[in-house]
């Protein structure tokens, strides 16, 4: 079983202010991330991971003020220098960074990742996303979002270019002969000459070959087109937090897609996003999870929902039916599969609900309160083991939506990991030299 820890929102959406989170520090104090890396490595975790976004949410009331006021996906920084700093206080744990293939250029990112792979001695992964937020698109000069299928086509070409660039300089091309003064072997540095639908790149990179050869590629795709893209480009897949039966179906669909691409399904693991709260007793774990209920104000929940679902929830009337609200959301071409749809299925589409009750119920969803696995080390390990076996014993878990980053990493290392080790499900030491080798362990 592989375990990664998701740092993405540990300082947003009210979590920064919970006991055991940032203590007397505030984002982006790099010492917290250094401490997190030390704790993750002590627990033998595979990787620290961070998602990203480059826009400030402005769907709620047509303004970004709510996001700034309540810290909803704001502020953020490019996590590359932060992860680079954390890598200098560790030797084994990997680091995953998120970049958009919709907005970035493959030459720049291939060079950046190769450089960072050197800095970390082969411990870097890049998580590639097809951006779906208009606020992000506007910051890169786009008047509207690229069509769904075209975003994935661009991603696939993007990765193809990166791979050509990483492979253009052979592994033994660097000579560094002090006697002759020869630096590299010109016969082992090759042209790329890529000319495609989205990119034109001559190459090669001017960096030395990366320690991993190619940095690890992670990609999340739940739609049929996204699963197809995963099968084509991903070394490991970032799977969503969803019911087990849905995870089983997505794993089966991925296996079919991998075989169609001529790839061995056993070579591609899925890291399922899984929020947990582990404590010595069930009572302590449930009390810890309860902190999520007080982490966000109703207005902050509305700002969050507006950004995620692409619909302005500041316009909610005092009372409404969930079905009618869902139809309004669909009519605006916003997300039809968001929180409103989930609540409509849960309570019935014809159910009339007040604005206050709706936001209270939404809080349980947006904070992951309902999905957080809370309990003793034995209980949490039982759940992870069941899901691991049901999805084919390939991959593991992205421990996400941390309640309080430092407290969570401490409890994972002190309580959960020893229980998984006792069952023979998790390593007791690192054996791989690079992140790619660590993720290949079975």
UniProtKB/TrEMBL annotation:
MF term (GO), any: monooxygenase activity
Keyword Oxidoreductase: yes
Protein name in UniProt: NtaA/DmoA family FMN-dependent monooxygenase
Annotated positions binding FMN: 52, 98, 148, 152, 223
Residue span, Luciferase-like domain: 34-392
EC number, UniProt record: 1.14.-.-
Assigned protein family: Belongs to the NtaA/SnaA/DszA monooxygenase family.
UniProt organism field: Neoroseomonas marina
Pfam families: Bac_luciferase
